[in-house]
Amino acid sequence: PDQAAVAAVRARDAQLTKPPGALGRLEEIVEWLAAWQGAPAPAIARPLVAVYAGNHGVAAQGVSAFPASVTAQMVQNFTSGGAAINQICKAHDIGLKVYELALERPTFDFTQGPAMDEREAAATFAYGFEAIEGGIDLLAPGEMGIGNTTSAAAIYAALFGGPASRWTGRGTGVDDAGLARKNAAIDAALALHARHLSDPLEIMRRLGGREIAAMMGAITAARLNRVPVVLDGFVVCAAAALLHAIAPDAIGHCIAGHVSAEGAHAEVLATLGKKPLLDLGMRLGEGSGAGLAIALIKTALACHRDMATFESAGVSGKSA
Amino acid sequence: PDQAAVAAVRARDAQLTKPPGALGRLEEIVEWLAAWQGAPAPAIARPLVAVYAGNHGVAAQGVSAFPASVTAQMVQNFTSGGAAINQICKAHDIGLKVYELALERPTFDFTQGPAMDEREAAATFAYGFEAIEGGIDLLAPGEMGIGNTTSAAAIYAALFGGPASRWTGRGTGVDDAGLARKNAAIDAALALHARHLSDPLEIMRRLGGREIAAMMGAITAARLNRVPVVLDGFVVCAAAALLHAIAPDAIGHCIAGHVSAEGAHAEVLATLGKKPLLDLGMRLGEGSGAGLAIALIKTALACHRDMATFESAGVSGKSA
Q1: B280 touches chain A (CB under 8 A)
Q2: Which ipTM was obtained for this model?
Q3: Are B106 and B203 in contact (CB under 8 A)?
Q4: Fold of A47-299
Q5: Does domain A3-41+305-313 have CATH number 1.10.1610.10?
Q6: Which residues of chain B have a CB within 8 Å of the CB of A319?
């Protein structure tokens, strides 16, 4: 983080026509942008929501309320402009890219073996680097993948301790029997892979999905290219938690866009030391919570950039 | 509230390409708009932030960190486009009007007598009706007035019980000595006016300010004209709390845009039965928190209006 840039932001903020601190977290947001863009006058001209879509072998265990065919159908919906994230990006002038990750070939069912082999896991991580191409200045990774809250919950259980039920929720709306199957699948996977869960990259490969591997790459590439990252919900934060387990500093450039209604997302954010900007009971994925947060972030920046100063506006400062 | 309109919104929502309930409070927002606009397909084409500026006799008691001259200077700043609320409204295509309420003639110091006489209180309340002229479809009243968190805290103490310190905060950033003066002024006013505080309109007249009276009128006019209202922070909610004390239903059309960092705003909202959309540690007034909330509200409506349905997008529904 660029502390000189943060100091420049604070110096300007103190001159703006408002009581010190009165914009609350909007002020903190601008400092965060400055710190990680390395810019005393941070800018958001090309924000991007990058949605990664993957299919999951574990979906065959009946862990989701929707059939696995929905992943590809929703990718089509993103392309046609019909999903929630399309409306959010359109409303706030945010770029949207969709990365389809071999949907016709789901990952291996992790209750039976590793979800990905080593070569595929590494290649998918590296594929995530593409997100930062084209000169973007703010990134929100998003995801779509029937079964992926099962994968995310398995990752949390592996990282932070089980049982599965500590981390699972109803995802897209699974019923009691489905939730029981979800917990059973995760607990079986934790037992099967037990001897390999001390290494976060092995957790990613064994219990993750392609979208989670790619998002880890995207978040990492953003860090290396001074692009601040807005975290979305339960599944995106599994990628962040894996990076955090490798090195806490690896997600220093990430802000939590929102806290999801899904399962243990609030606990995950607390563990990662991230205080969410929004708490709207959302649990959709697609980068939707992060996209809404970008609307706030852009507004915070507009206030900082365009407000008058006490001097320019002829407004008196605090009484002596 | 129009329950048929709410039912129409729910019926469409169930067809949109997302799991039921996955957009959380964004779904609730659209239902609220439909209920109070009386429209099965609610719209926000002309949202308005209406900022009321007033000066307060009690400012002479040294209750604020800023001199009273700042009220008029900030009105000039609103007019020139330099304040935070200007940037927020510009970013999200929200109309902004500023109503200056006889700034050269502050209300009477309520530690010495009623802030307003009966005629002025009634006229100012009625003046608030103008906010809804011009066919607006969403209203956020905002305010500016050095000393007005003292007035708001006095109103809460009168409505919900004292002492002053239960309701006061540092406003624009008053120091310990100033906070002590603020508490002393309110406690003195509560004693002076004690025999007249059972009637909310008398509380408004004796302890309120012109901006609070005008906002009560604006909120009331909105209700009568099917215009939903977004509440801002600590001072705006004093107007709402007075209306609520007259009849709880009088603020049924209001949603809480945010919870302020000021004093007891969270407790006020809980008492009014309003759950805030945003919690960003803001304490600026001007309608700034409500303005940001309007950005979310507009996005919620865009999702509801423009998302594809399962049928139109060819997306499978929940598994049987």
Answers
A1: yes
A2: 0.96
A3: no
A4: Rossmann fold (3.40.50)
A5: yes
A6: 64-67
